[in-house]
Amino acid sequence: MWYDEFIYPFIDLITHLKLTDILDILIVAYVSYKLYELIKETRAEQLVKGIFIIVISLKLSEVLQLHAVNWILRNTVTVGLIAIIIVFQPELRRILEYIGRTKLIMKSDEETAKQKVDVINETVQACLSLSRQRIGALIVFERETGINEIIQTGTKLNAIVSRELLINIFIPNTPLHDGAVVIRKNSIIAAACFLPLTENKNLNKELGTRHRAALGITEKSDCLSLVVSEETGYISIAIKGKLYRDLNEERLRNMLSQNLIRNNNNNVLQLKKGGKNDETKS
């Protein structure tokens, strides 16, 4: 029977399984899982499902000897590989950037947790003040992936992060208020930067340009974006294409700490429980 071609080799494989084979399987499983984490909730997720269906159909057409269908599918796969590289370039770039960010050795000049906590404290206090005054703001924290192309669209500052400076930047009708502030390590590297807008068509219509820009930059890099709405005063955070809205002070500090401080200690900021949070997926 045709299924003997699958059953007997499978039984033979199980009976002759070695330690190296198990290690091989675990490595493939881990890599597959990490790749799935990178592409889930993106266009590439639907692409993988489509490829899986085509591969299954291709094998079935060979077994059932459907020669015309098999020929069409084989040619579709050949042409499709080129189309995938062109159409899904952003997703492929994201995967390669993730691989490039993986470190075997920690940087010797890594910022201390205390310095990063000071940056978070100053930023939180600035956002709370802007929120009370209903002044819009957009702040981007650069992480492992460099965003020099974004920084070059704004005005270079190279200033120490302080609540007074952040508040002053976003005061309406000032030269730098329109655009995003980019924070690199412990410095405000630039202000009035232009960000790419999200490509998500299902986003809530009530969200304005700031929120769409905050999501857009997190879809193209690993940075974190912080938004203050001038209409509602709500403070939101965008991470990996997801928007977390209406954060209170404790929740805001907690999310910034978790995502910006390496080897984060939950006691560093002495946070209390609570904090309303709505999540909008990109």
From TrEMBL:
InterPro entries reported in the protein's UniProt record: C-di-AMP_synthase (IPR014046), CdaA (IPR034701), CdaA_N (IPR045585), DisA (IPR050338), DNA_integrity_DisA_N_sf (IPR036888), DNA_integrity_scan_DisA_N (IPR003390)
Protein origin, superkingdom: Bacteria
Catalytic activity: 2 ATP = 3',3'-c-di-AMP + 2 diphosphate
Enzyme class: transferase
GO BP of this protein: cAMP biosynthetic process
Keyword annotations from UniProtKB, A to Z: ATP-binding, Cell membrane, Membrane, Nucleotide-binding, Nucleotidyltransferase, Transferase, Transmembrane, Transmembrane helix
EC number(s) given by UniProt: 2.7.7.85
A GO molecular function held by the record: diadenylate cyclase activity
Domain called DAC: residue spans: 89-249
Family: Belongs to the adenylate cyclase family. DacA/CdaA subfamily.
Function: Catalyzes the condensation of 2 ATP molecules into cyclic di-AMP (c-di-AMP), a second messenger used to regulate differing processes in different bacteria.
Quaternary structure and partners: Probably a homodimer.
Protein name: Diadenylate cyclase
